[in-house]
Amino acid sequence: MSPPSAVEVEAVDDTTGVTIPDPFSLPIKANEIHGRRRKTDKSQWMLAAPAYSSSFKSNSSLKSKPKAKRWDHRLTLESHSRKFNSIKQAARFLGKPGIISLGGGLPSAEYFPFEDLSMTVPSIGAFSEHETAESGVVIRAGKHDLREEKSIADISTLFNYGQAMGSAQLLRWITEHTELVHAPPYADWSCNMSIGSTSALEMAFRMFCERGDYIISEEYTFASAVETAKPLGINVVGIKMDAQGLLPEDLDTVLREWNPAERGAKKPFVLYTVPTGQNPTGATQGGQRRRAIYRVCQKHDLYILEDEPYYFLQMQPYTGANQPDVPPPKNHEEFLKALVPSYLRLDVDGRVMRMDSFSKVVAPGTRVGWITASEQITERYRMHADTSTQGPNGVSQLILFKLLDEHWGHSGYLDWLIHIRLEYTKRRDVILDACEKYLPRDVVSWQPPMAGMFHWLRIAYEKHPHYPQKSIPEIEEEIFMESIEQGALVMRGSWFYAQNDVEHDTLFFRATYAAAPFEQIQEGIRRFGDAVRISFGLELESREANGTNGNKA
Amino acid sequence: MSTMDNMQKELPEPKDLSHHLSRTTRNRQASSIKQFYKYFSIPGIGQLAGGLPNNNYFPFDDLEARTALPDRWNPTPNIPIDPPSGKSKDKSKDKSKGPPESHTVVPKAANTTDVLKRIDLASALQYGTAQGYPPLYQFLRQFTTQNLHPHIPYKDGAEIILTCGSTDGFSKCIQALNNEWSEGRDPIEEKEGLLCEDYAYMNALQTANPRGMNIAPVGMDDEGMRAEGPGGLNDVLSNWNYAKGKLPHLMYTVTIGQNPTSGTLSVQRRKEIYALCAKYDVIIIEDDPYWYLQYPSSKSSVPIPQKSSGFAFLDSLVPSYLSIDYEGRVLRLDTFSKTVAPGCRLGWITGQPALIERILRITECSTQQPSGFVQSMIAELIMGPAKGDKSGSGGAKDGHGWDVEGWVRWLEGLRGEYQRRMEDMCDILDRGKTLVKSGRRKSLSGLAGNLSLEASPAATEALANEDDWSVIETAKIYDFIRPLGGMFIWVRFDFTSHPLASKVLAPRLSRALWIFWTFPQYRVLVSPGGIFGASDAIREQDAHNCFRLCFAACPRDDLKDISTRFVKGVQNFWRFKKVSDIDELLKDEDDGTAAGLDATAGMGALIGFC
Hints:
The complex is a heterodimer of chains A (about 550) and B (about 600). Chain A is about 35% helix and about 15% strand. Chain A has three domains: about 30-75 and about 165-310 and about 340-390, Type I PLP-dependent aspartate aminotransferase-like (Major domain) (Aspartate Aminotransferase, domain 2, 3-Layer(aba) Sandwich); about 110-160 and about 395-415, no CATH class; about 440-535, Aspartate Aminotransferase, domain 1, CATH 3.90.1150.10. Chain A has helices at about 35, 60, 75-80, 90-95, 130-135, 155-160, 170-180, 195-210, 225-230, 250-255, 260-265, 285-300, 330-340, 345, 375-385, 395-440, 470-485, 520-535, 540-550, and strands spanning about 100, 115-120, 135-140, 190-195, 215-220, 235-240, 240, 245, 270-275, 305, 350-355, 370-375, 445, 455-460, 490, 490, 510. By secondary structure, chain A is of the alpha+beta class. The radius of gyration of chain A is 25 Å and the shape is globular. Chain B has about 600 residues and is of the alpha/beta class. In chain B, a hairpin with an 8-residue loop joins strand 13 and strand 14. In chain B, helix 6 crosses helix 11 and helix 13 runs parallel beside helix 18.
């Protein structure tokens, strides 16, 4: 079977009742965004000023689009009862010229022990660590840049208390970026910052799910998502997957045949999915697949939690070992067009809450991400954040604003994402080459990942000499321990079961190519290959291969 | 064997409080992937398992900051002396060449393998541990258990976990210890409750409300929460009305510079309240963002610590509930919001290890960890690089960290600054407390006609005598207690002293006064008491009499001027003699029926961050 193409360019004409905007006809281009910004009142950037995405969307985005569906019937009582604070009244007074507040308990910026903050970051186009050492740029944020009209963001403002939606400064950039990449097809979408997607997911569960409810996810899923749901009393029902991830037919079947009495729970209505470079399977749902799943969601009135940490780790198509690479995207349009459309882009109903994160494309330690959903949902989210996480930390917000808005701009950020795409492509190719070289093809099979950080290796357990005397979990255990014996650590597929109580007829291991140096990836796969061979009683072919290649490591 | 070891030996184990854990928290298990970690350390193992991104792709090569030296601000003395010497000029006043600074540098990669000393972006920007960034966690744990609370009277002492600020910390405590309750779904016997002061930090109560908790306010005095008397803790707990739900098992309290009343709870009172909490099995969540802002100039006695912290400044402060927590029923929230900057979203929780472990599990599945930029920057500022490592630079002049000494010195300096602000504002407020009517005859005559209900016949007669200048009527308009701690002055008005008291209800006068302060000649915003009232009864019956003034936030140079404007606004407001004047002030407010209340709630959101 030939590997599926990593670039999904879908025609738009096959939709039934779903209109998808053509990426080419995007209302804005990356390098035009700054020029299109609406003139703003200076007070917008002030200390703890509330900010809303709607102030930052382009005009075309607001025009002639339907509003999102309402989700009152899906929200929990806890979420409903979060009090909406009408800030309009108070804002009227805060806006009076010269007024000084003795009301708020904000500490004075005089007492922040930071005068300025600076960091060395890559200049556009010279993104590697090596290049940054040579041509990196120092960007600086002062304490009173806003007052001194040097910048719209500074330490005195962003290091103070902020609103749960995040600062206006960074929220503007995030909103513009979201519109540029996803152009949500309904009117009242909005973004709200999160302190990372794990936190956002936990809050979403609490917004939509009661104790005893089921949510739906892929049959192999992000372990931490299950661990977040479980203590809340939320069960997970896993849906079958293929190389493109979640199967819409199985989703429909499970929902159609849902028997509340038998399951002891009402029919689930929340779908949690990682559509791109799914963890752990590495599967990426193609555009057609997403549309099909979306239609099933419409049919059963599901709400979709789209968790997309790996969206921009979509890679170049895999061409095979020693084959010439596909040339990199020539420009931003080509890059954006090559991305699989997100659920947000397909979301005519406003039934998607998308979670974005800077963790994989900037750094996890920023602890800044954002959600995009209809205003009703982001408002509930905001109310919740007000009394728990609050907005993301101001230090990261200031640093990200300086880097993404002032230094790189949207255009430079897309260049950075292209850089990341090509870097991950290289890493992916290294692991695939090693797999072809070192793994016994008759018992280990795989699909070249199109996105993400993970390679999902399927073991033909039925060919194991001790099967079925030894069960699938026992064989998994045996290979895992043997792999450690050989000196390679991989993740066991069973760690990622959505439902532990359901018997599985598949056996997988997860390997990652995201972090290790190239030689270590190759050596690790070689050792894993040995472990599989030992477990299956196959000859250790790769020993000789190691003899010739060993010098490299 | 030293006496200290002997002392340790005799301490009781912290009480097992697991019966208070919520269902969700009891169910939590260590992340299954964590079981994998033991394999990570096998030497030479080919790591293809973990899911971390490669730190080569973090687009930051270093992080640098110009930072303050710990002695930037002048401290005030620890023991009250007369007159207060706090008014001396400090270094910051020399505006010509700014105060001396240090240069704090967090490198991309530090030259040390010691995980407790390694402060760099490669580690800080990566996924980390939920407990906190190892070097910073280590520093704070040591500071907390050795300096801040040198004596915690249970075996082996307390544990800490870092949080994304105290709002996050409180939310996690509630998640750990409270079962959500829904009307119609759950029986009333299961409805849990939260004890708090009559006037409390609203944001905390808003964490509890949507979870279906009873809010159970406890009466207060100048110190803070009362143990005895009507409405005191004993009264609330022993006369609990079970028709409302379970006996509350959680208490939220701010014990130093209480928000909004600025009370500071004495050790004696703490012991009384703690004894009640032990008797009724209540867990105390002590939120103390202002603990280091205690003002000796307002204080009459200095507590004697059981065990020295090693610092005269820390020894002089009223200690935490932790210092008497022999059962391990105190969870204390600390924050960097008031000591460094709120935007850090960084704090920590201190408590008995078993409860902290549960909160760790909650953290793993929610916030994960505070910002890496923040954790590494603060670690570098205070701790500095490992010995001999030149790649980074700390907050001291010589490139070392501030160290504990510097950190305590910084806190002392901040206390000095806030104390001087407090004194300046209180001095001005003191002068405007009373209204002196030294009469112009015209208005007084008018007044006399209007005040037939209130004024005694003798007074009316006196006023009528236009030559009698010796009759000067004074009335106390408002009063306040000089704060012993915190950032606020709680001002209580007596609206019965207002000329229109008989014609306009006090809540309406209060609202009009608030609007009046926003007029161009005053331009002052203060927090109306209503946004802190813990119950409807308090909001309806008393809260309109109170306003909270924060002396912490406004520019230092404007402080006296603003305070004066506040007082002038009051004085002039007490000159209104026509009901129509009040109507005019409130004309924008009267368009909707409940606009006033809504606006008050909104105020909380906008200006009541802390």
